[in-house]
Design a protein that fits this description.
With about 425 residues, this protein is an alpha/beta fold. It contains 25 helices and nine strands.
Length: about 425
Amino acid sequence: MAVRLDQRLYDRLFDCVHCGFCLGQCPTYGQIGDENDSPRGRLHLMRALIEGRVEPTEPVLRHLSLCLDCRACETACPSGVQYGSLIEHVRGELAEKMEAAPKTVVDRLLDRLINDLFPDREKMSRLMLLARMGQAAGLDEFLTDSGLRDVLPPRLARLYAMLPKLGEHLEPMPERSVPPGEVRARVAFFIGCVSESMFGPTNRATLAVLLANGVEVLAPPAQVCCGAIHQHKGDVWAAGLMARRNIDVFEAIDPEPDAVVTNVAGCGAMLKSYAELLADDKAYSVRAPRFVDRVRDISEFLIDLGLRPPAKPMKLRVTYHDACHLAHAQKIRQQPRQVLETIPGLELIPLPESDMCCGAAGIYSLTHPEMADQLAERKLANIDQTGADVVAAANAGCILHLAHHARQSGRDLRIVHPIDLLAEAYANDSGSS
């Protein structure tokens, strides 16, 4: 079985000059030390598959599957290798082989959750309602005290254990919100699917921050998942459907907003990839780049706009973790730190290996729990060195993953989005005035 890539993608394989600069930045190579689990090694494997020199055997598929798609290699690469697009397209070609192993009922259930339920905001809302009721009824304690959690299928137990403490049910985001006073800008807000269901308060905090900065906010209710879950596992077709739907929806609500804003690093990276994803689609090849040109991470947008600093101090010791798809895919590093530095009294403490992947990587912690756990512990050990009480991370997946491991290891850490802290600072101003 030869892997097929169109000529445009195939030619990108030859951008790699085998210098090895990527090796020190690759989380899996750093943990294992096997060249086949490095970007350079995986590029060799991909080319050999395409040229028919190797077969997609179980070891080959394992090396390609173990990649986090964190894209730290792209930051390190002096030749500009577009590794992310290559690994995702090759995985798409190999999807049938990668999923050929017999699956249990639980595996099929989780696949259904990941593929069909996670990207559907309405279904996720109903699921979170059940989870919220379970938490309120003490289901967590019952599963632990009774020992039932220990006999649950490992992936199912892990998925349930990763759930954050869910607050009260939130009403849908308003379609249009207008700030008091002068309107400085108008944005469309991408609210996400999993992020809206599990981290709805962060979306409300983002809305509050935008309004406090004089920004009119449009949140089209018909928007759908960005497509990242499907793209990263190689389902480029499904990701393309979602990309087209989002472009249609956002153009309909406002064809020329000042920005399309998102507060999730993974979603932002995916939205910014729509031009590449739809490059061969005649109907969208012009529209997609126009959409991409307006996509901004919330920190990126606020710093460019000119953030109104809070007035009252907040005494916090905070360290910042660089989400992979913000630092490596979007090249956004300073803006989240600048947002945090506008809060009076906040001490921002440098984090060792701040841009090393924490192991979240979308659904990676479910598909490769051992590697995900190793990377989470490595990240938390670095956080321990800072002495910080609060960890800020600009991605829902990182927050979910690190908070789960902090709870499991007994660490007393608060892990939040930088915008959560900024919204608190603004609320502090209002409450103290």
